[in-house]
Design brief:
With 208 residues, the protein is α/β, with parallel strands linked by helices. It has helices spanning 14-23, 32-42, 46-54, 67-76, 78-103, 135-146, 150-157, 161-167, 185-200, and strands at 2-8, 29-31, 107-111, 127-132, 177-180. The protein has nine helices and five strands; from the N terminus they run βαβααααββαααβα. A five-stranded parallel beta sheet has the order 2-3-1-4-5, with helices on both faces.
Protein backbone atom coordinates (compact mmCIF):
# COMPACT_ATOMS: atom_id res chain seq x y z
CA UNK A 1 0.00 0.00 0.00
CA UNK A 2 1.22 3.49 -0.88
CA UNK A 3 -0.13 6.71 0.61
CA UNK A 4 -0.68 9.47 -1.94
CA UNK A 5 -0.99 12.88 -0.33
CA UNK A 6 -2.97 15.47 -2.28
CA UNK A 7 -2.47 18.98 -0.96
CA UNK A 8 -2.80 22.58 -2.10
CA UNK A 9 -3.89 26.00 -1.01
CA UNK A 10 -7.40 27.39 -0.80
CA UNK A 11 -9.00 27.42 -4.25
CA UNK A 12 -6.24 25.38 -5.89
CA UNK A 13 -8.60 22.57 -6.90
CA UNK A 14 -7.22 19.68 -4.84
CA UNK A 15 -10.74 18.38 -4.19
CA UNK A 16 -11.44 18.44 -7.93
CA UNK A 17 -8.28 16.39 -8.49
CA UNK A 18 -9.54 13.87 -5.93
CA UNK A 19 -12.95 13.71 -7.62
CA UNK A 20 -11.30 13.00 -10.97
CA UNK A 21 -9.15 10.28 -9.41
CA UNK A 22 -12.30 8.73 -7.93
CA UNK A 23 -13.98 8.71 -11.35
CA UNK A 24 -10.94 6.90 -12.68
CA UNK A 25 -11.30 4.20 -10.02
CA UNK A 26 -9.18 5.44 -7.14
CA UNK A 27 -11.92 5.48 -4.52
CA UNK A 28 -9.82 4.86 -1.40
CA UNK A 29 -9.78 8.51 -0.37
CA UNK A 30 -9.55 10.11 3.05
CA UNK A 31 -10.41 13.81 3.39
CA UNK A 32 -8.44 14.79 6.48
CA UNK A 33 -9.82 18.34 6.70
CA UNK A 34 -13.42 17.08 6.71
CA UNK A 35 -12.68 14.17 9.04
CA UNK A 36 -11.18 16.41 11.73
CA UNK A 37 -14.58 18.06 12.19
CA UNK A 38 -16.11 14.67 12.97
CA UNK A 39 -13.45 13.54 15.42
CA UNK A 40 -14.32 16.15 18.04
CA UNK A 41 -17.54 14.30 18.78
CA UNK A 42 -16.70 10.73 17.75
CA UNK A 43 -13.40 10.14 19.58
CA UNK A 44 -14.10 9.43 23.27
CA UNK A 45 -12.60 12.06 25.56
CA UNK A 46 -11.15 14.25 22.80
CA UNK A 47 -13.50 17.19 23.23
CA UNK A 48 -13.17 16.99 27.01
CA UNK A 49 -9.36 17.13 26.72
CA UNK A 50 -9.56 20.15 24.42
CA UNK A 51 -11.93 21.96 26.80
CA UNK A 52 -9.58 21.24 29.70
CA UNK A 53 -6.58 22.50 27.73
CA UNK A 54 -8.36 25.69 26.72
CA UNK A 55 -10.11 26.04 30.08
CA UNK A 56 -13.43 26.79 28.41
CA UNK A 57 -16.76 25.22 27.52
CA UNK A 58 -17.24 24.41 23.83
CA UNK A 59 -20.80 23.05 24.15
CA UNK A 60 -24.26 24.49 24.49
CA UNK A 61 -26.67 23.85 27.37
CA UNK A 62 -27.73 20.53 25.84
CA UNK A 63 -24.15 19.34 25.54
CA UNK A 64 -23.83 19.80 21.77
CA UNK A 65 -20.42 20.81 20.45
CA UNK A 66 -20.30 24.38 19.04
CA UNK A 67 -17.49 24.48 16.44
CA UNK A 68 -17.65 28.27 16.21
CA UNK A 69 -16.48 28.60 19.81
CA UNK A 70 -13.43 26.52 19.10
CA UNK A 71 -12.71 28.38 15.86
CA UNK A 72 -12.84 31.73 17.66
CA UNK A 73 -10.24 30.56 20.18
CA UNK A 74 -7.73 28.99 17.83
CA UNK A 75 -8.04 31.44 14.92
CA UNK A 76 -6.46 34.27 16.89
CA UNK A 77 -4.21 32.37 19.32
CA UNK A 78 -1.40 30.27 17.87
CA UNK A 79 -0.58 28.68 21.22
CA UNK A 80 -4.16 27.45 21.60
CA UNK A 81 -4.13 26.20 18.01
CA UNK A 82 -0.97 24.17 18.59
CA UNK A 83 -2.41 22.68 21.78
CA UNK A 84 -5.57 21.57 19.99
CA UNK A 85 -3.55 20.15 17.09
CA UNK A 86 -1.39 18.16 19.50
CA UNK A 87 -4.55 16.36 20.61
CA UNK A 88 -6.41 16.14 17.30
CA UNK A 89 -3.65 15.04 14.93
CA UNK A 90 -2.79 11.78 16.74
CA UNK A 91 -6.50 10.90 16.71
CA UNK A 92 -6.64 11.77 13.00
CA UNK A 93 -3.69 9.56 12.14
CA UNK A 94 -5.12 6.64 14.08
CA UNK A 95 -8.41 7.04 12.26
CA UNK A 96 -6.60 7.19 8.91
CA UNK A 97 -4.62 4.03 9.64
CA UNK A 98 -7.86 2.17 10.33
CA UNK A 99 -9.37 3.53 7.12
CA UNK A 100 -6.33 2.56 5.04
CA UNK A 101 -6.32 -1.00 6.37
CA UNK A 102 -10.03 -1.40 5.64
CA UNK A 103 -9.66 -0.07 2.11
CA UNK A 104 -7.35 -2.89 0.97
CA UNK A 105 -6.25 -0.66 -1.93
CA UNK A 106 -2.70 -0.46 -3.27
CA UNK A 107 -2.98 3.37 -3.30
CA UNK A 108 -4.79 5.36 -0.63
CA UNK A 109 -5.35 9.10 -1.07
CA UNK A 110 -4.90 11.43 1.91
CA UNK A 111 -6.34 14.86 1.06
CA UNK A 112 -5.22 17.72 3.29
CA UNK A 113 -4.67 21.44 2.89
CA UNK A 114 -2.25 21.67 5.81
CA UNK A 115 -0.15 18.49 5.64
CA UNK A 116 3.01 20.37 4.55
CA UNK A 117 2.46 23.16 7.05
CA UNK A 118 2.32 21.03 10.21
CA UNK A 119 5.35 19.41 11.81
CA UNK A 120 3.21 16.48 13.02
CA UNK A 121 3.06 15.27 9.40
CA UNK A 122 6.81 15.40 8.71
CA UNK A 123 7.78 12.30 6.74
CA UNK A 124 4.18 11.28 6.14
CA UNK A 125 3.12 9.90 2.76
CA UNK A 126 4.88 7.93 0.04
CA UNK A 127 4.12 10.43 -2.72
CA UNK A 128 2.98 14.04 -2.42
CA UNK A 129 1.18 15.91 -5.18
CA UNK A 130 0.70 19.63 -4.79
CA UNK A 131 -2.21 21.15 -6.70
CA UNK A 132 -1.46 24.77 -7.45
CA UNK A 133 -2.77 27.81 -9.33
CA UNK A 134 -1.96 31.52 -9.36
CA UNK A 135 -3.04 33.24 -6.15
CA UNK A 136 -5.45 35.53 -8.04
CA UNK A 137 -7.18 32.51 -9.57
CA UNK A 138 -7.31 30.65 -6.26
CA UNK A 139 -8.87 33.72 -4.65
CA UNK A 140 -11.51 33.98 -7.38
CA UNK A 141 -12.42 30.28 -7.17
CA UNK A 142 -12.68 30.26 -3.38
CA UNK A 143 -14.80 33.39 -3.35
CA UNK A 144 -17.23 31.92 -5.88
CA UNK A 145 -17.33 28.53 -4.16
CA UNK A 146 -17.88 29.79 -0.62
CA UNK A 147 -19.94 32.87 -1.42
CA UNK A 148 -17.56 34.93 0.71
CA UNK A 149 -15.98 38.27 -0.02
CA UNK A 150 -12.37 38.34 -1.14
CA UNK A 151 -11.16 39.99 2.06
CA UNK A 152 -12.46 37.05 4.13
CA UNK A 153 -10.83 34.55 1.76
CA UNK A 154 -7.54 36.45 1.86
CA UNK A 155 -7.57 36.34 5.65
CA UNK A 156 -7.82 32.54 5.48
CA UNK A 157 -5.19 32.32 2.78
CA UNK A 158 -2.68 34.18 4.95
CA UNK A 159 -2.65 31.19 7.29
CA UNK A 160 -1.33 29.03 4.43
CA UNK A 161 2.03 30.75 4.19
CA UNK A 162 3.85 27.87 2.49
CA UNK A 163 1.10 27.39 -0.11
CA UNK A 164 1.30 31.07 -1.03
CA UNK A 165 5.10 30.95 -1.28
CA UNK A 166 4.89 27.95 -3.62
CA UNK A 167 2.32 29.74 -5.78
CA UNK A 168 4.85 32.58 -6.00
CA UNK A 169 7.58 30.23 -7.24
CA UNK A 170 9.12 28.66 -4.14
CA UNK A 171 9.93 24.93 -4.12
CA UNK A 172 9.75 22.24 -1.45
CA UNK A 173 11.80 19.01 -1.62
CA UNK A 174 8.99 17.01 -0.03
CA UNK A 175 6.77 17.51 -3.08
CA UNK A 176 7.02 14.76 -5.72
CA UNK A 177 4.88 16.47 -8.37
CA UNK A 178 3.03 19.72 -8.96
CA UNK A 179 -0.21 19.90 -10.94
CA UNK A 180 -0.90 23.42 -12.13
CA UNK A 181 -4.67 23.69 -12.24
CA UNK A 182 -4.87 26.84 -14.32
CA UNK A 183 -6.86 25.64 -17.32
CA UNK A 184 -9.88 23.58 -18.29
CA UNK A 185 -11.12 20.38 -16.65
CA UNK A 186 -9.95 18.41 -19.69
CA UNK A 187 -6.47 19.87 -19.31
CA UNK A 188 -6.52 18.99 -15.61
CA UNK A 189 -7.48 15.40 -16.38
CA UNK A 190 -4.56 15.08 -18.81
CA UNK A 191 -2.16 16.44 -16.20
CA UNK A 192 -3.49 14.00 -13.59
CA UNK A 193 -3.06 11.04 -15.93
CA UNK A 194 0.53 11.99 -16.73
CA UNK A 195 1.43 12.72 -13.12
CA UNK A 196 -0.01 9.47 -11.81
CA UNK A 197 1.77 7.47 -14.51
CA UNK A 198 5.05 9.22 -13.72
CA UNK A 199 4.71 8.46 -10.02
CA UNK A 200 3.15 4.99 -10.04
CA UNK A 201 3.51 3.53 -13.54
CA UNK A 202 0.42 1.46 -14.37
CA UNK A 203 -1.38 2.90 -11.37
CA UNK A 204 -4.87 1.55 -12.13
CA UNK A 205 -4.02 -2.16 -12.26
CA UNK A 206 -4.11 -2.82 -8.51
CA UNK A 207 -6.51 -0.19 -7.15
CA UNK A 208 -9.67 -1.45 -5.48
Amino acid sequence: MEILVITGGIGSGKSEVCRILARKGLNAQYNADAKVKELYTTVPGLLESIEAGLDCNLRDDSGQFIPQRLAQRIFTDRKDLEMVESLVFPALMEDFRSFALRSRSSIVVFESATVLEKKQFDGFGDKIILVDAPVSLRLKRASMRDGADKEAIMARMKNQKLMNEISDGASDPRIDAVINNDGTVAMLEDKIEKTMSDLFGDWRKDIV
